[in-house]
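Treating backbone geometry as a discrete language has practical consequences that deserve illustration. The amino acid sequence and the backbone structure tokens for this protein are reproduced below.
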Amino acid sequence: MKRKEVMILHGILVLGWFIASASSGRITPQEKAESVTPIPTLSPPEGNMTFIDGVTWCVARPGVSQEDLQNALDWACGPGGADCSQLQPGGRCYQPNTLLSHASYAFNIFYQQNGNSDIACNFGGAGALVKRDPSFGSCKFLASETSAAGSSAMLGRAWMAMVAASLIGLQLIV
């Protein structure tokens, strides 16, 4: 992706975050005293979830550079808030000790914690939705549920993930 395209995408994502924040009441728009016509605020569709045959998982995309995977893994297990304790030595998902395997587990945890929204599986292009269970041995990947609904908290976190993914993309280009 060219730098100009990434900058445009980043701007759209940040704008979307502000719209979502405003509709949840965290940001209050200022109104002029002479303003009499209310302007509707558009928000992203709630429950924008991608389900393939009812169940999906988010995994690391094969072929993504090691640097991109590591950056996305660090974000998912850090600021993203995914519980990566099972990736530590002795954890159920430590073996195989590969970046692709660890990133897949972390991406899926983040994806499941954020309402199974397709944007919660972006990770700057490093994530991919799959319909085949990636669990192996004693390492069990959480699965999406078709009854999941996009609450405003999940929606806010999904928008945060989208903005973070765009920032990861910008960092990789700079």
Q: What stands out?
A: Residues 57-144 form one domain. The first strand starts at residue 57 and ends at 60.
